[in-house]
Amino acid sequence: MAVSSTPKNLELPPAMIEGATAAADWLIVWPVALPMIGAAILVMARKRPEWQAPFAFTILLATLVANFMLYMRVQGEGPLTMTMGNWLPPYGISLAADSLSALFSLVSAFIMLVVILFVQSEIEVRENKFGYHPLLLLLLAGVSGGFLTGDLFNLYVWFEVMLIASFGLLIIGGRKIQLDGAVKYGFLNFLATTFFLIAIGFTYGLVGTLNMADIALKVPQVESGAIYAVAALFFLAFAMKAAAFPLNSWLPASYHAPDPAVSAVFAGLLTKVGVYALVRTHLLLIPQSHAYLQLLIEIIAGFTLVLAPLGAMAQTNARRALGFLVIGGIGAMMAGLAIGTPTGIFGLATYAVNSMLVMTALYLVVGLVERMGGTSDIRKLGGLYRANSWLSIMFITLVFAVAGLPPLLGFWPKMVLVQAGIEMSNYWMVSLILLNSILTSIAGTRLWAHIFWRDGREGVNSEQINTRIRPLPPRAKVWGLWPAGMLVAFIFVAGLVPQPLFKAGATAAFAVYDPGEYVGAVFGREAVAQE
Amino acid sequence: MEIALAFLVGLFFAVAIYLLLSRSLIRMLLGIAIIGNGVNLLIFTVGRLTREVPPIVPDGEYAPLEQIANPLPQALILTAIVIGFSLFAFLLVLTYRAYQELDADNTDTMRVAEPEDSPRPPLSY
């Protein structure tokens, strides 16, 4: 197809951008470049453990500011793009930020900032030396790069950056359970990115380009039905990354293995990149595949919605149970994708933001519970309400938020999703979303009742006060309880004042539904108008 | 030629998937290595095979004067090889460490993170 015609397109004027990119447009590079440069410097300074944390914090603060400026710019002036190496798109690799990607990138940087504070409450000297902070920064660079890239192969590279950083974080303590979890996480995730690479190869063969905006322009001309097979392959790869049922087995096998802070980052960020890639491929790149795959997406969303909270109920390990709740959230986002109307994407975007914040906070709180109780086995916990009532209030707030009870943050996205389902008369989806809320609140409150509410451990002594609970050490109070508490307070306030979230979600949905803006931004608006 | 290579890619995938379905981690590693090569070959094939000259643009020209071989798949494959190799090396070391620590190279006996006969959830609430 277009492959052999590449030389012809190179005719005069040359495929180079004349003049340098405006300094203001460099804004899109910083959310990725800052953490990456910071990680490199921290690796070089590995003999200076005392520099690691302050420097990482400073870099993350700068990254958050850069993300915020990028988001405001995108909100004000529409999608922002920059193409590398002065080549015109589609020859150069483009970075492109629209409202959806800038929003996700902003929330990711915020979460990483909170987690880097929490890390100070539990990091060991050894782990600090082995590069805990650089790996966290590199993970953020991979996640932000994945959100902000405008090139399919570049997205693959960011997935791998994310993957290798997460491998490092997963095994950094070297405990047996970490090695076991990492083997399963490693093999299955590597396989998922390999499927993604296969799909990229076929896309190139069919469409002749890998620039996302260029694909969006050229896909309607592809007549071969093979494009549906490619779309299905993308769906397989990203659903595996997002841990949707039945491809979710790696998540509950590995997310409870590393340090709680690492679990929190994973739960907040990694699966959402998969969801983001699903939205991009099935609504922007190959929009005709959405109708084709809709039934499949609906079935997968339905099973994920129902089975995940049931899985959470069956667990005795608190962090494994939370892993299943993460998957339940993925189900809600898949439901938004399955509905696929602007309202559905509105619900998906807001739910993703909610899930990123709330699941991170839940893992942080359970990390503190483990520190007090010495175990994450809910049969051996109990009586924490008496020992630390603040922790129990934070946990129950987050449980209600993840289940979607008003007036907390999780209620609003679920409301939008239900509305989207009713608009499309998709009553099955609506009832499954509501069933998921009920089951999630049962699973969550059961965890709360076992960890906090009853006096003692499982068995005949459950009425007697649990004597094995140790109070939080000062370090865990300052660096653990405060950051987690501030995050919960932020979630609470964001739930009471949902307008900013609604505005962000609505503009993101609009951006997804108006790819013309995105494509126009990448190629320059005049060039598209000419075609 | 493309058809022959397509069959070869299919063979690579079949072998890799067979190996990946095994319980033994060493076989799974071999499967990962083979599927990586299969994908690289696939990208090479979908870039269309030609017996043309290397893609070099002469001095003073903006475009090559004659038909050239498509350079993009080669760039993609080179990147994929580097990434695949580093991740494979990591998985290899990880598997070895897991074998040392857990005394298991079989996924059936690696049950630290997900214990066998996991206990029933508490029934008090």
UniProtKB/TrEMBL annotation, chain A:
It is found in: Cell membrane; Membrane. Pfam families: Proton_antipo_M. The chain crosses the membrane at residues 20-43, 55-72, 92-118, 130-149, 155-173, 185-207, 227-248, 260-279, 291-314, 321-339, 345-369, 390-412, 427-449, 478-497. The keyword Ligase does not apply. Keywords: Cell membrane, Membrane, Transmembrane, Transmembrane helix. It is a multi-pass membrane protein. Residues 150-440 form the NADH:quinone oxidoreductase/Mrp antiporter transmembrane domain. Belongs to the CPA3 antiporters (TC 2.A.63) subunit D family. This is Na+/H+ antiporter subunit D. It comes from Maritalea mediterranea.
From TrEMBL, chain B:
The chain crosses the membrane at residues 6-21, 28-47, 75-96. Its main location: membrane. It is a multi-pass membrane protein. Keywords: Cell membrane, Membrane, Transmembrane, Transmembrane helix. It is found in: Cell membrane. The keyword Transmembrane applies. Belongs to the CPA3 antiporters (TC 2.A.63) subunit C family. This is Na+/H+ antiporter subunit C. It comes from Maritalea mediterranea.
